[in-house]
Amino acid sequence: MNTQMIWANLAVSNLARTTKFYTDLGFKPNGEPNHQLTSFRVGDNEFVIHFFLKEALQANMNMEIADAHQAAEILFTISAESKEKVDQWAITVSKAGGKLLSQPESFGEGYYGFMFADPDGHRYNVFYM
């Protein structure tokens, strides 16, 4: 089967806050936000992440949506060009209102990075390898 595209749909509690956070991180808007959704394209391959108000997303699902503050639903990875860029990401995330879950550090063989959560608890790691 040939998949044309894949994207992520995540639940958030505040669209304005989410839009500002990801704009501050430098993510590219994917259209204009509306009353249910804000959306961004990420990276060179322009991976799409839709952020829906939780109530709007929940209305179309037959299951509960996890509280990302309590459990990891997914861990997105953002690659950085250098250790210095990893450090810059950490500063930018903190200034934008994200929560650093770890500080930039070396780990494994040839890896350098850190983890953070956005204001709704969605988790990311940023690393250089």
Automatic annotation (TrEMBL):
SUPFAM superfamilies: Glyoxalase/Bleomycin resistance protein/Dihydroxybiphenyl dioxygenase. It holds the Pfam family Glyoxalase. Gene3D superfamilies: 2,3-Dihydroxybiphenyl 1,2-Dioxygenase, domain 1 (3.10.180.10). It comes from the Bacteria. Residues 4-129 form the VOC domain. This is VOC family protein. It comes from Pedobacter montanisoli.
